[in-house]
UniProtKB/TrEMBL annotation:
Protein name, UniProt field: Mechanosensitive ion channel family protein
Span of domain Mechanosensitive ion channel MscS C-terminal: 193-251
Localization: Cell membrane
Membrane topology of the entry: Multi-pass membrane protein
A Pfam family matched in the record: MS_channel_3rd
Main location: membrane
InterPro entries noted in UniProt: LSM_dom_sf, MS_channel_1st, MS_channel_C, MscS-like_channel, MscS_beta-dom_sf, MscS_channel_2nd, MscS_channel_C_sf, MscS_channel_TM-2
Residue ranges of domain Mechanosensitive ion channel MscS in the record: 116-183
Family note: Belongs to the MscS (TC 1.A.23) family.
Ranges where the Mechanosensitive ion channel transmembrane helices 2/3 domain occurs: 75-115
UniProt entry tagged with the keyword Membrane: yes
Length: 305
């Protein structure tokens, strides 16, 4: 078998129709070309990602934020995949005008059961474009999920809690529900740490202990605009109720439970060093002495004489 015969057989194999879609024959060569389109899309996406990462380098004259690069790379990725998909379909010879029936079926599906998927898809696009939610933000959702945003996908957002638990949250929850973003546009936040001191204590000494406790915790922000303070906020049953009001940096904002524990630990240390009593509920029991007289009467009457 010479080379020309071998080439002819290979050509026949590649052009032999495997199946037909309407008037279009799907051949091996068309499938190989479609795979080539997908590989090309993969390469283009990688090139775009590398190019956008270069814009974040500090030595560049024009730089973008990490969140901006993430959103732009995601949008470019979906755009490239969409263009390549349409090019592949067109190369296969499938008339896109014939997909109107498929589009109608998809519309019916959205109306009956896919509305949530479609809503999450649109919500993901809105989140990426508006930049109200960025990778690295620390959020508190209305559903009770608290953690750091690790990934914003087209259908869901991955929130990682401080216990390293990944929670998959539908994008529509960020659009329709209440979301507290602790690190939206300011790295510093003010928190309140409640504590109590016994009645009769020196309030100024309590303030001194609170400020010393705040200063001893790494991450406390103290400057002309952000100052720590101690507030007397109420009179409890067993104690004077105070609050340590401090400004903290981004690292402490993202670990609220640990932050609360750090300040309570420091407060106990400083209060004990100044002999300030931390009260606890107490009850006094008073016992009276005396004699309890009990009269017993016989229930049987004595017989008459």
């Amino acid at each position: 078998m010479d080379f020309l015969q071998w080439l002819d057989q290979v050509t026949q194999l590649l052009t032999h129709p495997l199946l037909s879609v309407g008037k279009t024959d799907i051949t091996v060569s068309r499938i190989i070309a479609l795979i080539g389109f997908l590989v090309l899309a993969r390469v283009l996406v990688a090139i775009i990602d590398r190019g956008l990462l270069r814009l974040a380098r500090p030595d560049r004259t024009v730089t973008l934020s990490k969140s901006g690069i993430y959103a732009l790379s995601r949008i470019m990725r979906y755009t490239v995949w969409g263009i390549v998909a349409f090019m592949g379909i067109d190369y296969l010879g499938i008339n896109l005008s014939h997909l109107a029936l498929v589009g109608g079926a998809i519309g019916v599906g959205i109306g009956f059961g896919l509305q949530n998927i479609f809503s999450n898809f649109i919500s993901g696009i809105v989140l990426l474009l508006e930049q109200t939610l960025k990778v690295g933000d620390f959020v508190d959702l209305q559903s009770g999920v608290v953690g750091r945003v690790s990934e914003i996908s087209i259908r869901y957002t991955r929130v990682t809690t401080n216990d390293s638990v990944d929670v998959i949250v539908p994008n529509s929850e960020f659009i329709n529900g209440r979301v507290t973003n602790w690190t939206f546009d300011n790295e510093n936040r003010r928190i309140h740490v409640p504590f109590g001191a016994a009645y009769g204590c020196d309030k100024e000494l309590v303030r001194e202990a609170g400020l010393a406790a705040a200063a001893s915790v790494e991450g406390t922000v103290s400057n002309t605009t952000h100052k720590s303070d101690v507030w007397l906020v109420g009179f409890g049953d067993s104690s004077l109720n105070f609050e340590l009001v401090i400004w903290v940096d981004e690292d402490l904002v993202k670990t609220p439970a640990r932050t609360q524990a750090l300040y309570l630990w420091a407060l106990e240390t400083e209060l004990s060093a100044r002999n300030i009593e931390i009260p606890f509920p107490q009850r006094d029991l008073h016992i009276r002495s005396g004699v309890l007289r009990i009269a017993n009467e016989s229930s049987d009457a004595e017989p008459a004489a």
